[in-house]
Each structure stands twice: as structure tokens, then as C-alpha cells.
Amino acid sequence: xxxxxxxxxxxIGCGLIGxxxxxxxxFHGHDVIAWDPSDAARENMAEAMEHPLAQLRExxxxxxxxxxxxxxxxxxxxxxxxxxxxxxxxxxLEVKRALYRDIFAAAPTDAIISSSTSSLIWRDLAAxxxxxxxxxxxxxxxxxxxxxxxxxxxxxDDAVRQRxxxxxxxxxxxxxxxxxxxxxHIANRLASALWREAVHIVAEGIADVEDVDRALVxxxxxxxxxxxxxxxxxxxxxxxxMAHYLDHLGASQERRWASLGQPAxxxxxKEKLIAGIGAETRGRSIQDLxxxxxxxxIAILKAKGGLDV
Length: 309
Description:
One of its GO terms (biological process) is fatty acid metabolic process. One of its GO terms (molecular function) is oxidoreductase activity, acting on the CH-OH group of donors, NAD or NADP as acceptor. It holds the Pfam family 3HCDH. Keywords: Oxidoreductase. The protein is α/β, with parallel strands linked by helices. The chain folds into 2 domains: 8-177, Rossmann fold, CATH 3.40.50; 186-304, Orthogonal Bundle (N-(1-d-carboxylethyl)-l-norvaline Dehydrogenase, domain 2), CATH 1.10.1040.10. The protein has helices spanning 16-27, 39-48, 50-59, 75-79, 93-106, 122-125, 158-169, 187-203, 209-218, 220-224, 229-236, 241-259, 267-281, 286-304, and strands spanning 8-12, 31-35, 69-71, 84-87, 112-115, 136-141, 150-154, 174-177. It has an 8-stranded mixed β-sheet with strand order 3-2-1-4-5-6-7-8, sandwiched between helices. Strand 4, helix 5 and strand 5 (112-115) form a beta-alpha-beta unit. Helix 11 packs across helix 12 (241-259). It starts with 7 loop residues before the first strand and ends in a 5-residue tail after the last helix.
């Protein structure tokens, strides 16, 4: 299966992430067969995909989805002909392992089982899979997957990882590969480290929630949308680049590291965070905030250009 061929993809789990994946897959011409243990989730899936599909059409200049879509009454029927199984089950190890047992029993023997997990690691997911473990890939997307291009991959079998990477690149995704299995992959570890300090700043009374968020969005966050952390410091070193930065400013960086906090989510800290985000939202609903976020994400993606949605 090349990245460009029409594939049969089983989407297991029809929640927020599954809906987003299914829309992206259909937009790129793949046939999606979806299943969820919830009757309501299965019945809602087709209608729920309309919004992300509309966003993809906007990004793609009016291009329409060409992939077929169907709902399977059972997991076994969903995966029976699948080349890729995109698993989006709950973040509970026992649930995912049970799903894998059923998938291995029914799916083709060369199908890749790709997990959207954000908190579990490959070695735990694959611990009971025996020889089928090589087919499991962790493929962590950033939410919402149809708009956020990042996919973080880990697989024990390099050939399987390469097949999965080619597939996701064919969906216009930016694929990064972990060399070592790690909790939180790459991006969530970075995001968690930053939020830890954001919480510390609020807990210590250095700044309130809204000003912390504004500082990030209008400062490093804007720069990080075009260059990463390492490249940012390389450019910060001027003509001498990273070597100059480390020689001349490395000590000051270490002093900042030493001052970073280790906050605890006590009741008092949680109250500060909840009150602070309440002030920042100014009464806007989650749906309103998501709509505003997505509109700005689409504008940023268009401005950056060159991204194959």
C-alpha cells in the first residue's frame, strides 16, 4: 500500500478524535468503515463529520471528499478488509488490549493497528499481543487531527513504522518519529513542561491566567509556529548560532531552569486556575471558543502555505 492509493481504513471509536480522523481520511480519498460500541455514536457519525469536512473544503480550496463512508454493526465487520485500523478507544489499557485481541482475530494479517493514544505507551499496549505486537503503532495526533498536522509515531518494527509514516504523510500530516518509547511522546511532554511553569506562575502570583496565555500566544507561541525551540535559540545566537548562544548565554539559561517551579494542583491552585480561565473566556461557551480557535488555525495554516490538507 503506497501513501497515495485508496485504502480501506477502519475507524474504531466514533468520538471527537474518531470523527476528525474519519473526515480527514475521506477527504483524502480513503474508504472509511467506522464502529463504536455506542449506538448513539454510530448513528451520529455521518452528521458529525460534516463540520470538519466543511473546514477541510475551505482549506483545500473547495476540494470535496471522495472516500466512501459506512458504519459497521460490529467491530469484526469494520476491520475485516482494513489495511489500516485507526483505534480511538478510551485511554484505558485494559480496554485497548481487549480491542486489539478482537482486531487481531478479524483483521487481515498485514493490517497496521494504529492507536491515537495520548497517554499510553507502545510497550504497555503491545505487552499481551505476542507476535502481533509488531503491527501496533502509536500514532498520536494533536486535536483536532483534521486541522493540526502533527502525528507522532512509534513502532518497534521499523518497516511497519515506515509504512505508517508514508500513509500519514499521504494525509498531508507532518510526521515525527520517536527513537524511544516515552510517556507523552514528544509534543505532550513539551506542552506539559510549559503548562507546569504556567501553573507555577499563577500559583505564585506572578501573573494571572489570562496574561500568561497572552504572553505565550503573542510571544514564543507565535515564533514557535514557524521555528522550533532549538532553532529559535540557534537564531538567538546571531551569526554564531547555537554554539555562540550556549557559550555566552548558556549560564543564564541554566539560572532560569533552576528558578522554574514544581507546582502541586492543590485545591487553592485549582480554584485560581478555574477562576482565571473563567475571567479569560468572558462567558463564551466551549463551542464558541472552539469555533474561534478553528477559524484562527485555518487562517494560520493558509498563511503558512504549502501544507497539503
